Protein 1
Amino acid sequence: MNILDKNISELADLMDKKEITSEEIVKIYIQNISEKGLDKTVYKSLCVEEAIKKAKKIDKKRKDGAQPGALAGIPIAVTEDISTKGILTEAGSKILKDYIPPFNATIIEKLLAEDAIIPGKVKIPEFSLEDSEYSARCVLDKGALVVVGSSGGGKDVIKLEPSYGLVSRYGIISATSSLSPLTLVAKEINDLALVLDIISGYDRKDSTSVDLTQRDGSFKHNTGKAAPPVSPTASDVAPVSKVKIVRELSNNNLVEDIKKLGINTEEIIIETAKYILPAFRILSSAEFASATARYDGIRYGYRSDNYEDREELYKNTRSEGFGKEAKKTIIFGNHVINAGQYDRYYKKSQQVRSLIKDEIDKILKDGSILLLPLSDNLDENLKKSYKELGSMTGYPVLSIPYRNAKDEYIELSLLSSGFDEKTLIQFADKIEKILDSHGGGE
Amino acid sequence: MDKDYEIVIGVEVHVELKTKTKIFCACTTEFGGEPNTHCCPVCMGFPGTLPVLNEEVVNYAIQAGLATNCEIAENSKQDRKHYFYPDLPTSYQISQDELPICYNGRLDIEVGGNKKTIGITRIHIEEDAGKLIHRDGLGTLVDYNRSGVPLIEIVSEPDLRSAEETRAFLQKLRAIMLYIGVSDCKMNEGSFRCDVNLSVRKKGEKEYGTRTEMKNLNSFQSVMRAIEYEAQRQIKEIKDGGTIIQETRRFDQDSGKTFSMRSKEDAQDYRYLPDADLMPIVIDKARIEGLKKTLPDLPDVRKKLYMERYGLNSYDAEQLISSIDIADYFEKAVKLCKNPKTLANIMITEVFRIVDTDDFAAPFSYKHLAELVDLLEDGTINSSTSKKILEEMIKEDKSPSVIVKEKDLEQINDVDTLLPIIQEAITSSKKAVKEYKGGKEKALQAIIGKIMGKTGGKANPETTIKLLKENLK
């Protein structure tokens, strides 16, 4: 029995049947992390002692007959820009050197409340300004079952960027104000759905988080507790009336595969697509420049030793503390909001963003979902554009890995209306199995 | 002041709101405290923290807007104003740029009998910053207790034309803020801070001159002195052929002069950015109506009432409405006594001498004050004993009737009692009697003084004078 191959519900079953303890699971993961050198390649820092202590507590809880939390004993990692009380949180930047938060991010509170084990914090490039594969590697090499954080690159994993407002942003350091801050990375959809269930929900510490109990009482994710689905039929995927595929990303084989499921497909064009990337860069840079203005060397993090007065303290601290990409983004971000440029760049980009959202709303109005097949062979900028569509609309994007007969890697990104994660998860769960059985996949 | 020139003044007033908690977190707004004990990760700008708007701040701003005849915006938003300073933990102040909560208001003022309406451009909400403390040996330290305390900024139109008008406007504004209870408005603690924008121009000119902004004005006195100095400085500069530079100037209390702090060229680009961590502020009509009902009668309404119903003159009425506590105290007392004018007189001349009118605390019960007024009114005491009684009342808040009995201060009105005392005084004041009879009316005072001395000031002054004159015929 290889514990590292079990998913969350399987591990929960084993623990319920007393075939294994939380402590044993955690120790197996920690051993694997060290054997594969993940503590150096993937993790920025490990919390081995805390993890084992917590696992022992959960085992005792179970022994005493108390009901442990939904993620009891399950190793869930977070990226190093998620605030963890008492644990180093540098967000990949020298400017936050030695910073230890005095509080937990809301998602950490929620994970801990459900008895999840946090084995450590996964690396990111400075403030996740660039794509990275650390989270994907962590999951694939079995450093944790799910990684919650800002790192969304890498292949052969399932990724979910939840709707803006579904998960609290409180304590997520790389988060900019209006753009989606998080990606959940897992090997299995059910694991991902279960973690999403735990970390989502209204948070009074985040005004932009949405109270879904008021919005729609029926919102609930696949809990993962259900029996594995049997071979799906077309009627099982009924909630999705149509899959709309972006023509410039399209791939004939894929369209055929989806048609075989009995699902209506339609090839479409997104007129505003060419504006996605420029507008995203302007908005995200402006928000980044603003959000990082607080790193001034006064209260926490890095402070230059080399200064005579206040002006120099700021200049040298920020010059030495931020990396090249961060500095570029800050300079660009401040440029687009300075008094003379604001209307031309920032304001215009906000208007563009509304137009993009309007167009996507029209596309999704008939209850369909959007499929963005992001092939490795696509032009890099084109791929980047569509990757930011979720962030620009605030809508959820669920990506599943797929390799076609020619062994070409395609990330199938599915986008739905806001807070419709349930549909995406159900749809992706089924389509993934069919595509697997079709002969693609790994 | 040069008669050829006109001063043009607009003010910006920061009023610290007295909500229980800060604008974006649950920390207390209490003034003072050990440094950095009234703060948390949010108001210290820790990474990943988010602001959550205290709705009470919006309510206070709406109330301030309603009390100054503003329109209330159905939709407004909050913006970040970026600048680096150690007392500003996020390096941006959350304020309001394009869409303030209140706009287009006005206030009436009265100076030297002339009424004038002053426009209020806008009122917006924002957060206060912390404080820098300079310590020998330790360098500069920061205290974030004040960081995140809510403020409203009230901006007037450039409608003011003199130091007196400016003071009248600021006093009226301060009184209103105190009436509606949104702030303590303590200038010495910084909960009511004024910046003055001033320019001068030749009379009759339509264009405004270049303005300077003056800061560090900690009292109405400083505001007046700064305006007078700065206006003279600008007029002299122009007459000498110079030009006014748009700049910020600091008022120095010791010298009474203003000094350049920074010019427009050094002015920062604040890079205003909508704060997307916060939701837009949406205010519906029901909320505005609800808040309207909570507003007390404002100073102008009360002033009118005091003049019409109680027959007070404009000056006396103005004194009594300067704070809501004083006005409330007056209103409670006036209902229990016979003569409102006497009450107003005693309050303005006697009570205001012993209390802090900026932070009024009743020195004794309004019932006792009303009783004192009636004792005076019905002749039980005279005005000189009333002062003695007031002194006793400050020592111990007792009924003045009881004090009169205990201290035997009742006025002597009885002719049979007074007559022998008067006659004795006449006999012992030969010189004064001679002078009086020689036509020197004033000489009578010396004799009255003797009588008062003999009676401990209790003799009824009118009866005494009447009897004295009769006996001197």
Protein 2
Amino acid sequence: MQNTVRRYMPLISLGVVTIVLAVLPKMGVPRVWPLYLFHFFVFLAMANMWNLLAGYSGLLALCPAAFIGLAAYTMTILTWVDVPFYVGIIAGGAAAALFAAIISPSVFRMKGVYFAIGTLVVPEILRLVFLRWRPVGGELHGGGAGYMVKGMAGVTMEHTYWLGLAIGVASVIVMGIILRSKLGLGLAAIRDNDATAASSGIDVFRLKLYSFVIAAFIMGVAGAIFYSYQGYIEPSAGFNIKWLMMALLATVIGGKGIEGGPLVGAIIVVIFHFQLARYGELNLLIQGIVLVIIMLAAPQGIMGLVRDVRKAGGLGALLRSASRGRIRARQL
Amino acid sequence: MSEEVLLRVSNIDVFYGGAQALWDVSLEVRSGEIVALAGSNGAGKSTLLKTISGVIHPAKGSIEFAGMNITKLNAYDIVAQGISQVPEGRRLFPEMTVFQNLAIGSYNGKARAKREENLTRVYELFPVLKERKDQLAKTLSGGEQQMVAIGRGLMSNPRLILIDEMSLGLSPLIVCDLFRVLHAIRARGITVLLVEQNVWQSLHEADRAYIIETGRIVLSGNALELCEEEEVREAYFGV
Amino acid sequence: METLADLASPIAIGVLLGGLYVVIALGLSLVFGVMKVINVAHGDLVILGSYFAYVTSTSWGLDPILSLVVGIPLFFVMGIFIEKFLVHRAFRMSVDAALIIAFGISLIIQNAAQLVWTPLSRGLMTSYTLESLKIGDVYLPVVYLVDFAMALVVVLAVHQFLKRTYLGQAITAASQDSETAQLMGINPARVYQIAFGIAMALAAIAGVSLALTFPFTPKSGVPFLIIAFGVIILGGLGSMVGTFIGGMIFGLSQTLGGHFLGPTGQLLVPFVMVLVVLTIRPQGLFGR
């Protein structure tokens, strides 16, 4: 009995937290709360999926902006042909997933850093395509001018808030399921050793493809939701490298390759985002400095540090063993 | 002259890749000797060479070279002290020419001044390298690559040269030639410490030998006398 | 009807522009070749070079090219410090860690530049900025010719340095096998610092070249970084000759793409080429 409770404890607490968050906008909280939380949900979904790619699948994919922009554009353009925006959001995710599946045979041929660089080029190409391409709206809209999202009359901040909550929670659940499934086991084997995993009968390509497509879908949905809130999309924003920065920052600060990492990281990034926003450039400057300091001081991220502290039995013990380790490392 | 101890390894313990690889190993090499370090695969021979050349450092014990304690020196500083290593598998720089591979051997300050002199000597020892000096290292045959590797080791103007698994993967004829070269090198006053899986051959070419098993020195002494030892004959020659 | 004469101008401009791209890509290629680190901050370092030239020419009245006499050593030393205190510590952990550090450096430089120089677009005006040289029917802007001349000098100098000096050979050796390089008496940590320093010096030169040719803002580093990636992917990561040819191909396909497809086709054509090359030959045209 107690074991069952413990086993389902995370699920129960996730349920409770979700319900509390869902009714929050109705509770008369300050108006900025839903706004903060909305950003947090979107960032969480992004970071969770980037963690799936970079932390668990060995795919240092630098192309989140491609999925975001593509899905947001799909959603927006569909609203121009009178498709409701919530259908467009799912269609956007599907478009991003399809795109991921289409480019995977070519990008997966590249290994390690080549993969990273190859994927970094992808959003830039899409940006250039969308600068040129005007699928709807004649010569006055599209291209560099971008598109308004249509059919948003009557859609309130509360609605988009709930959509954000849904994708944030979905990303947590998807991560949980993947890591406890055969896919997660296979990915763990790949992460330890690509070649060994392949020789022991694991279809490395297929597993990586699954996580690439899943991540593209969820990132796409999150991006489409974000732009339904923004109400406007243009190539330089949708395919901006800042989407990658955000996902990377949240994942690394929280702890790459740790399930709870992106959650902690996304909280911190949202706090940065709003608390430092009034300082303009200083905001991003500080984010950069924090990123560098974290990489140098605690490369495992905050959750990684917490894990190490727990394992060592207290911070003092960890520091002592770390200094011992350093001495030994120097001797070796 | 041959009485002076050039290299003295005293009671070293070495950890490599998280596990202990050497236990309380001691050995001496005197000036002008050819000393063989023989033993089966995985016995710790290469680890010992890497420890002497400073790629790894011992957890315990000390290494002295020409009266100087080099235990804690880095690999790149030890070269300048006069120890050069010819690594297992040659490890040439594949995209550099034969000449460039040799020249980079004389990177340390003392060797740079003697570069032309040493280069002439290397070409004397291995005339074929002079013919192939502008060829990329990766295009050479295995035997020629080993010649470049030894030549590169000599370019650093060493007093002691460590050679790891020189005969691995080479035809017996070429191996014979290479051993002849080792004697020529010794004749020029360079001491040789040789690591070989091929116990029989190394015992016949060396003055003295150490036999190492699972990280410990088990036998040592005059090489030819070791050949006659019952244990050695049983374990390595299958007699 | 297209004639060859119509194409003379885009071809000439493409080659000259390719020279600028080569200089921008060279530092990135060098650091990758030696350390296997993708320095995503390289574009921002180039822009930092542009601002350096901007400051020296506006406040001291120095010619931008002449300002490199100060700029090159300054950037070289800065590079050594950045490598020693930031990149190297991450590099010892993993290649990913170094990449993330580089992202952090990129954020810092971009936003510090916005604080100091505002987001406004800047450009360098010199006596030769608007001059053109007429050869046949083709007008060649003098700055493009200057870019190309600088590219030639830089590529030859780097090539000779790597081939003829002990330090250059040490960098080459360490990039092929850093453990064996140690057995030659080469200290890899020092080699990495020097390679990074040289990459920074190259960024200073590229920055001047860029500032002479295009207007720039603190955020201009990213598009040029991506172009530089395109160049070294075409040529093959870590190969000097490849980088040079990659730059030419990139410049040419850009101007020819613009000629046939209009202004927005300019960068699309080279990037699509990059993806095609990556798919067919992931190691680049001249990679090993």
